[in-house]
Amino acid sequence: MAGSNPNAKPMNLTLNVWRQPNRQAQGKIVEYHVKDISPDMSFLEMLDVLNEDLLRGGQDPVAFDHDCREGICGSCDLFINGRSHGPEKGTTTCQLHMRKFSDGDTITIEPWRASSFPVNKDLSVDRSAFDRIIQAGGYVSVNTGGAPDGNEIPIPKEISDRAFEAATCIGCGACVAACKNASAMLFVSAKVSQLALLPQGHVERKTRVENMVAQMDKEGFGACTNIGSCAAECPVGISLENIAILNREFLAAKATSNNLA
Amino acid sequence: MSWITKTLTSSIGRKIIMSATGLFLCTFLVVHLVGNLQLFKHDQGAAFNTYSHFMGTNPIIRTIEWGLVLGFGFHIFEAFALTRRNKAARGTQGYVSNHSEQNSEWTSRNMGILGSIILIFLIVHLYNFFWRARFAGDLPRMGGADPLTSDYDNLYLAVVSSFHIWWYVLLYVAAQISLGYHLWHGFRSGFQTLGLNHRKYTPLIKYVGYGFAVLVSAGFASMPLYFFLFTDAQGEMAANAPAFLHTVASAF
Fold first, then answer.
1. So what's the ipTM on this one?
2. What percent of chain A has pLDDT above 70?
3. Whether the Cβ atoms of residue B165 and residue B227 lie closer than 8 Å to each other
4. What is the tens place of the pLDDT at every residue in A155-164?
5. Which end of chain A is more exposed for a tag (fewer CB within 10 A), N or C?
6. 4Fe-4S ferredoxin-type domain location, by residue (chain A) (predicted)?
7. Which residues of B touch A261 (CB under 8 A)?
8. A2 lies in some domain
9. A114 and A149 co-located in one domain
């Protein structure tokens, strides 16, 4: 089953997978062996093969998060061989292909680790902390009326490009997983700067950054020490410049908003 | 809590205190280094002792000194507060396999360890020079013919004799290497935390920071090394010192 590439040879791999029955239980690494893995498979398809083997053997399959399998949804959150989404730059786990590994390799697969991301089961983690941060202010709630005509709101292309780059964040949590401090600032800064750059977001920019940072702290994420692992591991390339924008927005909001709380 | 304390105890607030005090301490390093370069002057410590007497007695300097105490105090306090918070955020179950060396610099990940080495050095350093000059009063006097300076503390001699103790020199050099790495990350990090990130200036800040880290740490480390390797117990340059040192010394 070598797939579409005629030169691709099937691989046999050893997998060290984190198994944990539920949130309270103590987890551990369990070794598995998978055979005849096509280099054309995605990493998740390789895990599908493992789970089919486990099911056939009457064992509990490995729980892992996944949805679109095309790098958009941000669901597939695996810490592979000590890196968020594996060793490849700019990819999610579902975009990582087995051709990046070699026959006989041992691959260690762990869930995202952070106090704010508790493990549900095996490799599946609860990232609802991110949802609550977005609920705290990551939106535009003013009534904007009907769709305006094109170019009615003047936005320079450079600004719209930068806002769009920030908007590409898929909320996967690779930044938190890679960060020594389990800081969520790259994630929060992407949303804050996306909306702060655009006129629609200006109306609520002060309350937004105050509320999102307050929620981020309440969820127990760490504080950024500008290490840069987050940006290096981000599958969509959100840059550290956004964290500087977040700090600026926060300081300006705290200094000038009418919020005394 | 008022909005001010809430702001300053938030994750970003603490980082802003960290960077503001850190950059302030960078300015202190420059003043301290430039002043201490007078140790190299070939005058049996006259210039250095006059300078240290001024620094210890001038009312304006003594007032600014409190700013320095607060700068160090807040920088160290926030470091502990942030480390505690960040360790709690990381959680108890660590990664079995974590290759952070592939996505970040060693210095950036170990600012706490580097800072702790500098803190230990700071305590020893303050005890040995600052405490003795300001409070203990056990330093020898300068003496000499000039009635204005003869009663000054001979801090120069205390420096020279300390820098002839091998473990002391070793501690100083180790601390300066730590300081260099600390500044390598800290300088640019301070600007980033204050939100001063711009595609025109950030690359410049980065390289200025690297230069600053190397110059400051090498400058401070050169003092104990010079006295240990090339001078006698009075601070006089040994005859076997390299020729270029004699040239540099006479240029002073």
1. 0.92
2. 97
3. no
4. 999 999 999 9
5. C
6. 160-190
7. 3, 6
8. no
9. no
The answer, yes or no, to whether residue A6 has pLDDT greater than 70, is no
Based on the fold, state whether residues A22 and A107 are members of the same structural domain. Answer: yes
> How many whole angstroms separate alpha carbon A227 and alpha carbon B108?
5
Q: Could you tell me if A110 and A94 lie in one domain?
A: yes
Instruction: Assess B94–A contact: CB distance below 8 Å, yes or no.
Output: yes
Both A165 and A245 in a single domain?
Answer: yes
Measured distance CA(B4)–CA(B1) in Å, rounded: 8
The reply to whether A252 and A133 lie within a common domain is yes
Does B84 contact chain A (CB < 8 Å)? no
In this prediction, residue A175 carries a pLDDT of 98
User: Do A146 and A48 have their domain in common?
Assistant: no
Taking an 8 Å cut-off on Cβ atoms, the answer to whether A82 and B93 are in contact is no
Mean pLDDT (whole number) for B83-99: 96
Same domain, A163 and A250: yes
Last residue of a domain, one of A120, A145, A172: A120
Q: What is the rounded distance in angstroms from the CA atom of residue A200 to the CA atom of residue A153?
A: 9
Distances (CA, A) of A197 to A167, A204, A234: 11, 12, 21
Domain boundary among A75, A98, A120: A120
CATH number at residue A68: 3.10.20.30
Rounded distance between C-alpha atoms, residue A206 and residue A159, angstroms: 19
Q: What pLDDT does B235 receive?
A: 86
> Is residue A6 a part of any domain in this protein?
no
Q: What percent of chain B has pLDDT over 90?
A: 80
Q: Please tell me the predicted confidence (pLDDT) of residue A2.
A: 43
Contacts of B10 in chain A (CB under 8 A): 213-214, 217, 250
Cα–chain center distance at B145: 34
Average pLDDT of the residues of chain A: 94
Residue of A nearest to B4 (CA): A254
| Residues of chain A contacting B109 with CB distance shorter than 8 Å | 180, 227
Nearest by CB to residue A178, choosing from B11, B103, B105, is B103
Confirm or reject CATH 1.10.443 for domain B3-82+109-251, answering yes or no. Answer: no
Residue A116 lies in a domain: yes
Q: Do A202 and A234 have their domain in common? A: yes
What angle (nearest 5°) sits at the alpha carbon of residue A21, between those of residues A19 and A25?
100
B16–A244 CB contact, under 8 Å: no
Structure tokens at B48: 């250095």
Question: Is residue A49 a part of any domain in this protein?
Answer: yes
Task: Give the global pTM.
Answer: 0.93
Question: In this predicted structure, which of A1-15, A36-50, B129-143 has the lowest mean pLDDT?
Answer: A1-15
Total domains present in chain A:
2
Alpha-carbon span A170 to A214, nearest angstrom: 21
Interface contact A225-B189, CB threshold 8 A? yes
CATH number of the domain residue A180 falls in: 1.10.1060.10
Which of B111, B188, B197 faces A225 most closely, judged by CB atoms? B111
Pairing type for strands A79-80 and A106-110 reads antiparallel
Please say whether the beta carbons of B225 and B173 come within 8 A: yes
Q: Which domain holds residue A232?
A: 128-256
